[in-house]
Specification:
3 domains, Aldehyde Oxidoreductase, domain 4, alpha+beta, Aldehyde Oxidoreductase, domain 3, five-stranded mixed β-sheet, single chain, about 750 residues, globular
Length: about 750
């Protein structure tokens, strides 16, 4: 199938070395955004709207500016007006205008927590006092939170200049519906006419936050000559640079961004909230400014992922063959357009080969925080609807749920619902592994239910730069442009070590700042090990080629008479009796053979292999409280080839945990006043270790031949199946199909009570 080496031939790839950054992180030495300290630094804080929708009548900052200790104060007037043009450097589309208006409100506030002004002072207490002295007059406007209410003809309009795109003719009236997306194939009406069994369902999810433990934090310094520096916890220092430059009206070359360590992101740290504000404050006062969000601010002012409504209709023959499907997805975008409904449309039916389908997506703005990417953006909610419907179909047809998925599951040569033809995919292999797993056949205790669900994510490639430098003692330094959010330092070092023939401990991986390494897309889309790993591998191969040249010069032989094996140059000339030259020996004499040895590669990686997963979940439901307990959980996934298996297992486990939290407890709760009521971890209930069993993982390896070691992205697929897997298990345990997430104890208890009352 490919020219990839057999896995058994690798010396480093596929092993489990200690992570290079592990000691610093467990000892507290690693520097995160809030750990940055600069000489003369002052503190910045933001004043936020208490209203979900209001017109800003006036802002009086005179008292705050006069307060002793206040060094700077900015509002939207301190930032340039930006055009309404697309900006796609992050995950998810947005316009420069919308990004700027989200960073600092202009004219109107559009959600509870929207930034209105910011101050910098010599202490956080003076900042708080100054914020309280800023007088903002608001004209409070009607607000709308729920997606279908926002779509209604009589809904309060957030943006009078917005009309719905994707309808054909341009509408004449403004709307909260930003865009319609349609994917279709075949003859839907004929497909459903052919069906022997049709199932329909209407499913609902609420907004949920990425839940990273580290809040947003940055430090920024703007010098008198217009040169700016930013230290920031983010998923992409180049995106931060680009957005800061645009929002400040500066040249990108005048902004340097140094990536701090990142305490979780999951897609939520792919845009800016604080960085341009810190730069503007620093520009005004001439001192470095540090800003750190509180947890309340993180919830109220940074992107959750969309809540929405998912309507699914599936038609099948008696033998389980799917013949038609209709899916409608209505997603909240928050205050500005750009929900992940497009990706949801593309992933909703991607696991299945269906001849006739129609998928419609609606991107809808609401008076809630602008959504941000969250691990497989859009796909989990779509899969919740489709995989729940698949479970209903299996039950009504009397077919094993995995067998039903095997019968209809995509395989090589099938045209995906979103367009391309699949190749080198492993969905059928994951289904077979799940069916064969002891978990699937284990007997169930009374009252325990078992559910299964499948999931898909594209994985992407994109632009990456990496450099490999050989040191004088024969060790190596690898510099890449992607923040490490899932173990990429280790995987980069491992791939370089494999090519160079070094022990991985002799390779030092570094994440470079924007002035030290060429452009790289952000760390997201499950792209880093694939794309940046490809750049690292090619740079290491260039270094090996140069090492062979240096050995040839040393031996005075032709270059094609030198081979590189296990970290040594081997002389192939039978007329020469030369002993192998180690990398250390060659590195120690570079001044005599041509100078320092290094290589940098920039590329636009193509051919990322899509990922598929199948999850199995056992739950027990407490009839007294409605609490759902996950008793056993297994995640099976095609991972291409696991570069560092322990990290891959951790990705599967982490994604499953987040999906379980989404299924059972997590949600934004808004009051009638449009304000979030649970903006803290005490009330926003995320699962902790004691809530869950050990999550078993099965790594199915169907190599991607377009990567030198067969890698596929693994980080996003595992959050896609859990929502439906848990809901399907609850159905099996109780006989109740829960159509809305989260399946929290009050909702579950209400559903149990309704069934009991109906039986009386």
């Amino acid at each position: 199938m490919s020219d990839l080496p057999e896995k058994s031939l690798f010396r480093v790839v596929g092993t489990r070395p200690i992570r290079p950054d592990g000691v610093d992180k467990v000892t507290g030495k690693a520097a995160f955004g809030a750990d940055i300290h600069l000489p003369g630094m002052v503190i910045g804080k933001i004043l936020r709207s208490p209203h979900p929708h209001a017109r800003i009548v006036s802002i009086d900052t005179r008292k705050a500016r006069a307060l002793p200790g206040v060094k700077a104060l900015v509002t939207a007037d301190d930032f340039p007006d930006l055009p309404d043009v697309d900006f796609e450097a992050g995950e998810g589309a947005a316009t420069l205008r919308d990004i700027a208006h989200n960073v600092m409100a202009r004219g109107k506030v559009l959600y509870d927590g929207h930034a209105v002004a910011a101050v910098a002072a010599i202490s956080p207490w003076i900042c708080d006092e100054a914020l309280a002295l800023i007088e903002v007059k608001y004209e409070v406007l009607p607000h709308v939170i729920e997606v279908e209410a926002a779509m209604a003809a009589d809904a309060p309009i957030l943006n009078e200049n917005q009309v719905t795109q994707g309808l054909g003719a341009k509408p004449d009236t403004p709307s909260n519906i930003a865009k319609r997306t349609v994917l279709n194939r075949g003859d839907l009406e004929a497909g459903f006419a052919e069906a022997d069994m049709i199932v329909e369902g209407r499913y609902r999810t609420q907004p949920v936050h990425q839940g990273y433990i580290e809040p947003h934090a940055c430090a920024a310094s703007m010098s008198a000559d217009g040169q700016g520096e930013v230290w920031s916890s983010s998923q992409g220092q180049f995106v931060i640079r680009a957005l800061c430059a645009k929002l400040m009206g500066a040249e990108m070359a005048d902004i340097k961004v140094t990536p701090a360590e990142i305490g979780g992101g999951f897609g939520g740290k792919t845009t800016v909230y604080l960085e341009p504000v810190a730069l503007a404050l620093s520009k005004q006062c001439g001192a470095p400014v540090k800003m750190t969000m509180t947890r309340d601010e993180v919830f109220r002012a940074t992107g959750p992922t969309s809540g929405g409504v998912i309507e699914v209709k599936l038609g099948a023959k008696k033998d389980g063959t799917l013949v038609a499907a209709q899916v409608e997805l209505k997603y909240q975008a928050g205050a500005f357009p750009g929900s992940p409904v497009g990706a949801a449309c593309m992933t909703a039916l991607a696991c299945y080969d269906i001849p006739n389908f129609l998928i419609t997506g609606w991107d809808v703005i609401t008076n809630t925080p602008k959504v941000a990417a969250y691990r497989a953006p859009g796909a989990p909610a779509a899969a919740f609807g489709v995989e729940s419907a698949m479970d209903e179909l299996a039950e009504r047809l009397g077919i094993d749920p995995i067998v039903l998925r095997e019968k209809n599951g995509v395989r090589d040569g099938v045209k995906a619902s979103y367009g391309p033809t699949f190749k080198d995919i492993g969905f059928q292999e994951t289904l077979a592994a799940a069916k064969a797993h002891p978990h699937y056949s284990a007997p169930l205790a009374p009252g325990v239910g078992r559910g299964v669900a499948a999931g898909f994510w594209f994985n992407i490639g994109g632009e990456s730069t990496a450099a490999v430098h050989i040191t004088e003692d024969g060790s190596a330094v690898v510099v890449s442009g992607n923040p490490d959010i899932g173990g990429s330092r280790a995987s980069m070092a491992m791939m370089a070590a494999e090519v160079l023939g070094l022990a991985v401990e002799k390779v030092r991986p570094i994440v470079g700042d924007t002035a030290s390494i060429g452009y790289s897309m952000l760390t997201g889309g499950s792209r880093t090990t694939f794309a940046t790993g490809m750049a690292v591998t090619q740079a290491a191969e260039k270094v090996v080629a140069e090492l062979k040249v240096r050995a040839a010069r040393t031996w005075d032989v032709a270059e094609d008479n030198v081979a590189w094996r296990d970290g040594e140059a081997i002389c192939l000339d039978p007329a020469k009796d030369n002993k192998p030259l180690s990398l250390a020996a060659l590195a120690g004499h570079t001044g005599k053979t041509g100078g320092p040895i290094s290589a940098e590669v920039s590329l636009n990686a193509q051919g990322a292999g899509p990922g598929f997963g199948v999850h199995i979940c056992d739950v027990e439901v407490d009839g007294e409280t409605g609490n759902v307990t996950v008793l056993r959980y297994t995640a099976v996934q095609d991972v291409g080839r696991a570069i560092h298996p322990a990290y891959v297992e951790g990705q599967l486990q982490g994604g499953a945990v987040q999906g379980i939290g989404w299924a059972l407890n997590e949600e934004y709760v808004f009051g009638d006043d449009g304000r979030m009521q649970n903006s803290g971890f005490l009330d926003y209930r995320m699962p902790v270790a004691s809530d869950l069993p050990m999550i078993d993982t099965v790594l199915v390896e169907v190599p991607n031949p377009r990567h030198p070691f067969g890698a596929k992205g693994v980080g996003e697929v595992p959050i896609v199946p859990p929502l439906a897997a848990v809901a399907n298990a609850v159905r099996a345990a109780t006989g109740i199909r829960m159509m809305e997430l989260p399946i929290s104890p009050p909702k579950m208890r209400a559903a149990l009570d309704a069934v009991a009352q109906a039986a009386e």
